[in-house]
Amino acid sequence: MPGDTPTGSTEQTVLLYAPRKKLYPREVKGTFNSRRWLLVWATQLLYYGLPWLNWEGRPAVLLNLVERKFYIFGLVLWPQDFIYLTALLVCSAFGLFLFTAIAGRLFCGYACPQTVYTEIFMKIEHWIEGDRAKRMRLDSKGPVRERLTRRSLKILAWSVVALWTGFTFAGYFTPIRELGGLVLSNTLGPWQTFWILFYSGFTMLQAGFMREQVCKYMCPYARFQSVMFDYDTMIVTYDETRGEPRGSRSKKIDHRAAGKGDCIDCGVCVDVCPTGIDIRMGLQYECIGCGLCADGCDSIMDKMNYPRGLIRYSTQNAIAKGYSPKELRAHIFRPRVIIYTVILTLIVSAVLASLWMRTPLKVDIMRDRGALAREVEGVWIENTYQFQFINTDERPHTYKLTVTGLPGLAVASSDTVDVPATSTQLVVVRMHAPITDLQKVAQGPHKISVRIDSVSHPGVGVDEKATFFIPR
Questions:
Q1: If phi over 0 gives left and psi between -120 and 50 gives alpha, with beta otherwise, what is residue 54?
Q2: Do residues 398 and 417 lie in contact, with contact meaning Cβ atoms separated by under 8 Å?
Q3: Where exactly are the structural domains of the chain?
Q4: pLDDT tens digit sequence for 332-367
Q5: Model confidence at 8, in pLDDT bands (50, 70, 90)?
Q6: What is the pLDDT of residue 3?
Q7: Under a CB-based contact definition with an 8 Å cutoff, are residues 120 and 207 in contact?
């Protein structure tokens, strides 16, 4: 037939995207699962709780895009503080490099929002549809009415969690109590409505339906993690030397005498895996390092009266060379880890020092181009400026201006300016100097210094430069 592959041909069909096979992860108890749920509770208490905390009469964390002010407890950041966002991203990158080099994909397995919300949605699914076996029976040959009822209840519960998550997300940009009032009165703005529904739908889609597909096909970290791994990186590993040859057996026989390893080929490590991989096949990019396969394997080892740790957190070198725990710890602190640690420590220290020494006052000085230098009353040479005061403090300030740089130079307008808390203020300031004092000074532009000090709160002040123009 045309198109048939000839007998003996070596041609193969390769699927670039394998059709998804629905996973039914099995629940497991153990050390790693307990740690994961501890992180789930910690991250979600933080995420859902922060917008409700108040700090000096306002939300403790508020990213006010309309007013271009970011409130983080007692810290107020403005667009001019964009450097701190850059520093945060750099610290996050080096932190990721460091933790990945030490212990693999810990973030993916324990703190990634995709992992956290998938775990929450799977728990809801377990409560409503039952354990792994019940869910499989329900999907394959369960009564249609029961299947539709349970699935509808599940999606309803998912929707409640997703909507609350989207509402909380919007609460970081609009005070959440105010946002709640807008929801109850049905007066939400279009953008607030969009972001609540968008983030809710995004959460629902990824955690409820796509799940492991996000980790396998959408997450870029899965693709470049191998660059940060080496043979001394702690990862979830299967001890092939101890486990092979695998095979089922009676609990009563001496499996070593029968020529078998500790692995009884039960498949529990595959059943509990949220991405559906077989850890016994070695390191795979789909592995998120959650350790649930280790919990599942340990439970089987306990039943067989075998030592735990057939699947465990270890390194490829430790497995291959039989490192002791002390030798394993010694190989963690290798050059790349030390370099990452030093760089991260230096960056974090610099950022904290900058925040500690940061003055809550910023001033931009611009010469008024519409009013050039002029002679006043035949006595003074006067220049006009626009001062942009940015008070990032949550207290109002009264600032006093002092100028130096030319003989007799002084502030002709009021030399004090009141600026409310966390606000900007544009003030026109006139400076003059006696003509008699400037006769020996060259014509043209001259650099001058402006000192701005807070009268109400001594110690807050800045020095700025400006240009004073002497006409011909």
A1: beta
A2: yes
A3: 20-358, 361-470
A4: 888 889 998 999 999 999 999 988 888 888 899 988
A5: low
A6: 47
A7: yes
- Which residues have C-beta within 8 Å of that of residue 353, sequence separation ≥ 6? none
Q: Detail the DSSP E strand segments found in 226-327.
A: 235-238, 311-314
| Span 115-171, pLDDT tens digits | 999 999 999 999 999 998 899 888 888 788 988 999 999 999 999 999 999 999 999
Q: Which CATH class is domain 361-470?
A: mainly beta
Contact call for residues 221 and 108 (beta carbons, < 8 A) = yes
pTM over the 0.70 mark: yes
238, 280 Cβ separation under 8 angstroms = yes
List all residues 6 or more positions away from 50 whose beta carbon is below 8 Å from its beta carbon.
Answer: 60, 61, 172
Which residues are paired to 236 by β-bridges?
313
* Residues counted in the chain: 472
- Asked if residues 293 and 311 have their Cβ atoms less than 8 Å apart, the reply is yes
Return the number of other C-beta atoms located less than 10 Å from residue 281's C-beta. Answer: 9
- The answer to whether residues 417 and 445 touch, using CB atoms and an 8 Å cutoff, is no
